[in-house]
Amino acid sequence: MADSGKHVALEVQAPSIGGAPHKEEAQKVEVVRVGFPWRPGPVDKLRAIMVSPLTQAALQLAAGQFVVCLFVFVRHISFSNSCLASIFYIASMLLLSLDTTVGSRLLAAASINGSLWVGVMSAGAMVSLAHAPGVAYTTFLCVFSCLALVVFCALRAAAPLGTGIIANLGFGITIVTAQFSWPGHTLWYTVIVHFLEMGLVAGLGTAFAGLFIFPTLARDELRDCVAQIVSELGSSISGMGSSGGAAAMDADLKRQRSQRALQIHMCAREEDQHDTDYRYSAGWSQNTDTRASRVDTALSAGTSASRIGGIKDELCTSLDRQFIRDASDPRGDHDPRHAESPWAPSASTLRPQLLLARRLLSEAQAEPQFLSAYLMQLGDWAGVLDALSSLITKSAALESVLEGEEPLLQDRALRQLLGRDVLPVFRLLYAQLAASCAAIAKAVRSDKGSKRAGQYALLFGPSWGVLEFELAATLHAALKGYWQQYRVTHPGDLYRPAPQVRALLYVATLTNGIMESMAGLEHAVMVALSKQMTVFPLPHQRQDIRARLTSLDQRRLRDRISLPVQSALKVVRSHGQLPTDTTPSPRPPWDASGDDQDTVARPSEAAPAPADDGSEGSRILDEIKLALDERSRSLASLSWSQSEAPRSPRPKAGGQVSLKRLMAERPLQQRSSQALQRHADDSALTPRSHTGPDGERPAGWWPWLWLEVAWLLPLVEGMLAFPVWTTLRTLLTQRIPEALSSRGKLAENTWRNRYFVFGLKFWVGYCIVLCLSVALSANHAAVRAWRPLYAILTVVVVLSEKIDLTVTRGVLRLAGSVLGGVLGFLVMLRPSVATSPYALTAIVCTFTCLCGFLTMTQFKYAVFLTLVTADALILCQYTGRPGSHGTPQYFYARVAMVSGGVVVVYLIDLIMPWYASSAALEQMGAAYAAATKLIQRDYEVFHDELERVGRPCNPGDAEKAEAAEKQDLEQTEKDILHKCIAAPLSAVQASLAREAVLWKHGILAMPKIVHDMLRCMLVLLDRLAAVELMLQQKPIVSGRYSAAPFKHLLEPIDKRLRAVLAAVVELGEAVKQVLSADKTQPALLELVADKIKALEHARMLLRLKYLETQRTLHDACQETYLHDRTPDDAIRFLSTIFALSKAIDKATLVARTVLEDEWMQQRSNWRLLLGIQP
Question: Which bin fits 655, alpha (ψ -120 to 50), beta or left (φ > 0)?
Fold first, then answer.
């Protein structure tokens, strides 16, 4: 008990593994006293602030600013216009460096020099040419500078943001500064060289801040990020397992309408359902309805079978139409049930973190190896991210069908349909997947490369081949149980497939794919971790002890994770045995022998005998260890599929295969390889000196040297301005030829290209400000004193593609100039402060540090503009002469030039304005149209694949056709799913995060339709990925497909199904026109509404044709179709049709979201011109 109300005594008993606890363990009780509730004190809060990323960013920014100040205040290293280095330093830290890692800082330091020298050298060449004899200097400089700006404006529109801004700043500022510098050696040695030195100073400050002030390695951040993603993914999978099949909660007010409609629908018998978002309530079998009563009355009165079918079809059609509308209702609940819990995040929300991990991987390539205590093969970590991306995609595809208020699958409904429980097996599989994610996350976080590959094979989860076999056996039992149960309960009724079975097959197929991806992820992580090497190895004796203890800890950890799930699977098998049938049952992954082959008895020395059901936990664990695949040899052994394994004849009798039988039937060579693997694991405990991660000796001095200097390659590329040349090459070889290819619509496509319009507006604004600055400075000396270069800086920094973002930047530019200018003006008024380098350095660094706390927030751009103004006013007015101080004229000139630049930018951007919301809607409209075409394309692939299976051909031709079909599907997925759908949605996500305006309400706020549309499109993307996965599935139960589904199921409904898909494509084009229009057009909205109605009508016709086909099959149930088919035919056909139906449901939901949004119905031209939102 607790001594007071502030503490609680907890008695914790350590659980034993695999059996009853020992007596000594049962007597050990640990008492832990914890304070409750715990609140962080002042020391805890201070410690959290000091170690936070905000403090790290602020201190790094201030430290780099100190380095830059040295080149202004120290006379021996200062040079003319050295104060302008602060502008490029702030741009490097806040625009080029995306985070605080060492790799990011080094890349920014290299990129600032590469982009700057391109602009500076171009400006120097332009000024030199303008001084040619017989040339009008000012006129030539203005005209040819505008011609050169065509290239730089193209860089600003197409290149990355920081690269384009730095190159344009270097060109414009150099032109204005070097205008009156001549002869040539004065121009190049006092202006151009000094500008190049500014880049070096800015890069030096950036590198110093990243290397010496709270340095953080990108490789460490990469490991933490990967571990966090895997951990959250495991929580998501665990949430899906715990929420799937859960009983429905008590109905409340918001669910009454859906529950009432659900009760009506369920009373019409479960075979009359449509494959949309059906939700089973807990007591649906006890509810009645008048329409359902009329159906039952007709049945009891002896109505003819055709009349009964007509009554049922009429009721089914009305209910199906209602459920289609409910599934695509924008006001409905379409969030996954487990996503409501904070500990079970949605799998689709992990994609931004995966992009962050890829960015960290690129930054880690620029980090010196000697900074880390261990070496990482970054190429192997790229494989880890690819495997993790595949796992996230499949998990998100499974998650995309778990949305809504009620569960998709329920234990009670499936028990009534199948006569047995199947969901517990799925929950156990998800539990094992979550446990494997926990093991991977722990290994990635803690391990530093001191283990070998054999030891990692012991750490990670069980043999996924065993669990895939369990899943195949479950599917076999589900299909057999469904048919047997249905024949017993409905002997004379018409067969109509239950959507619960379709959903079950869909979930099972995705679960099998998730397990294959998990096996691939384990293999990739094992390879990545086992190839790491410690730079400073421990002494031989300590290393030997550490290796042995680590191996034992790994074995214990794996035992604790894998044993409960495997034991529970044995319990599930013991309670539900498969019925004996002549249908081919799934073969275990390790059984490569058939009944006609000789089996070799297992010798006693190869492995221990199989344990009985009542044996100790350690003996069961030995069985499970022996059942593991050879996980360290190749990925193929990890992601086993029965279609790829050697086929064996059918067994004489089906049924559940026990673990002891599997152990007895294993081939001798498989057991020998397992024994060799165990010997390799034991030999891994013995350390070896002067060897690599797996015991091999280094290949030579060249790999070692390349490993030590490879980090310099991305830095050299940045110094040589590779991003600039890559962007120009892309423009010349791809963008411009594509624009010129359509000569008939060249003008129309050019003016509709938003980036071309932005580049043109940027060129016009830049030319106006640059020519005015050059011309007025040449004719009026007073203009030169007002520093017109700040007007050029304003145009380059403020003008953006979207007008609302331009307005935001203009306001921040004015506010930052006033705030920084007032600070600089007040500091430089007192001569005692204005002439003291120590005081000025302290003031500048302190102000920079305070502003640095906002660099990781949405005010990052405001911090950049404020610091640029404050540093320019303080550093550029410092002379070091006694009694000197700043002048108000400098402050007035600064504010005046900035205000003039902002006015020019606003006037230019009001011409053909483009809003951030319009850009996002246009991109998502194009992606939506591509998604509808992809649905149609996927059906074409599915149709051709089913037809090819039934076409007689040679085995070699069949393999070639299958390979060509697979390659075509992969190319389609790459060209359409990734480039046309996923890439635009990722761009919209990044744009909303990077270019967010400061206003949450008002005329410049982002409309709600953008976020709603993006959320729906991301779910549609997951469902399209699910369709792709359904097309790639392999026969996991029987090992083969037959021609029956195409002849008896798909061919009769092919015409109606193609009509549905054509209606989906037409709907996609209509929605694209609405989202791409500059204003609301009622005719386009009416067209979308008509297309939605046409799609619903086509789906109803398809439903009736499908029921007619099922009735025909039931009447001819003795035909060869029922004998020649395989369980995998039902799995593939029903799961693919279910996935297509779910994708069409979500596509309809997106269209209705656009149609019913109030903002879409009211926008007009005057909003586009004035920025006013009705």
Answer: left
